[in-house]
Amino acid sequence: AAGGGGGGSGGSGGRDGRRHHRPSPQAEMFPEDEHLLSLLCQPDQSAADAKLGAQQGTVLASLLLNLATLCGHQSRPTVGLELMERALKLQEHLHGANSNQVADILLEMGWQFITSKKQKRAGNVLKRALLIKCAPVVATLNVDIDFSMNLKSQQWQQILEVAVREIKDPKLPIALNRLAVLEASFHNYILAENLFFWSLRLRERIYGLSHPLVATACGDLGSLYARQAKTIVADGESKRATDLRRLTCSRDELVALKAQQENSGECERAQHCLTTKAERYLQRAREIRRVALGDRHPFYASSLFSLADLKFNNGQVDEAMALYQECYDIRAEALGPKAAQTQTVLGRLARSPNKKR
Q1: What's the Rg (C-alpha) of the chain?
Q2: In this predicted model, which residue has the larger pLDDT, 116 or 19?
Q3: CB neighbour list of residue 138: distance below 8 Å, 6 or more residues apart
């Protein structure tokens, strides 16, 4: 899942600000699995892989990818990426460098790079995957492009606008989502917003308006707006704290402070606009999940968590605490009171003056 998201498509990890629970390898793998992993990670396997038939190669590539994903969940990204590299070479040999099979592995590699803080490599492999997925549009438009080009370029924007209308590959919104997560980490919020929005529109077209994956896209977009709103508030508080520490000001400083005061109204309007957008998308995600999954599902709890964070940061403490409490009750029931996600909510509840638990 990504992202992002809670329950995001980003593989985007959880979108409710939590860290994923990382179980120890011993808790997840049996000894025979570890032995298999050591065999698969041996160097110089390309010659042997090249001799495999199509069916054998496809099965091995699938096994490698599944084990790589498991290694990623166990905080062993280096091993996971080695397995993915081998799976990638296998699929390139079997299906060609521009095949959908290759693109699907690149998507998973991109997410591993993001979680490993290797943003540049993540961007390259994700854009390569995106270019493969958009190949029919590139051919139709006859656009001269390669994956190293910036996503802000006119060529990419032209391709993506058409692809969202014409392509129905369910992996395409995942690629868009993961690139959005990456761009948001660079504070490229306008580009991230466009990518998240395209991912949402594409999922609506593929799955309909009320599918849980549409809720995930709504949650991702809402969380992006909430993050920007929180940044504006934090920047404003930092400036006010700096101003209060100034007991004396020069003439130039007074002029600068006056300009800041005049701009404060604009910042407040921007913060209000972003908060309104965030709440609209987060509420939509919550409602879709309530209808599709039920109001005791952990993904529904993730929507409550995101809304609670938004309201808390906006000063609506009582409403936030009520949402945190409902989220806690669901997670404690579904995941257990000691689960990492449940404990995260408990930490938020500790900020309440009433401290219910």
Answers
A1: 23
A2: 116
A3: 131, 145, 159
CB atoms within 10 A of CB 144: 8
In total, the chain counts a number of residues equal to 357
Rounded-to-integer distance, Cα 9 and Cα 12, Å: 5
User: What separation in angstroms does the CA of 81 have from each of 66, 174, 197?
Assistant: 12, 19, 29
Q: 71 vs 104, 126, 341, CA distance in Å?
A: 18, 20, 20
Measured distance between the N- and C-terminal CA atoms of the chain, rounded to whole angstroms = 31
Rounded Cα–Cα distance for residues 127 and 111 (Å): 12
Please give the full DSSP string across 118-186, using - where no structure is assigned. -HHHHHHHHHHHHHHHTHHHHHHHT----TTS-TTSHHHHHHHHHHHHH---TTHHHHHHHHHHHHHHT
Angstrom distance (rounded) from CA 235 to CA 241: 10
Cβ-based neighbour number of residue 264 at 10 Å: 13
CA–chain centroid gap for 141, Å, is 30
Residues 6+ positions from 283 with CB-CB distance below 8 Å: 307
Q: Do 293 and 299 touch, CB atoms closer than 8 A? A: yes
pTM value is 0.79
Q: Please check whether residue 183 is in contact with residue 192, taking contact to mean a CB–CB distance below 8 angstroms.
A: yes
Nearest to 88 by CA among 105, 63, 110, 108: 105
* Rounded Cα gap, residues 263 and 283, in angstroms: 30
Quick: pLDDT tens for 149-190.
Answer: 899 999 999 999 999 999 999 999 999 999 999 999 999 999
Angle at 171 between CA 166 and CA 176, to 5 degrees: 80
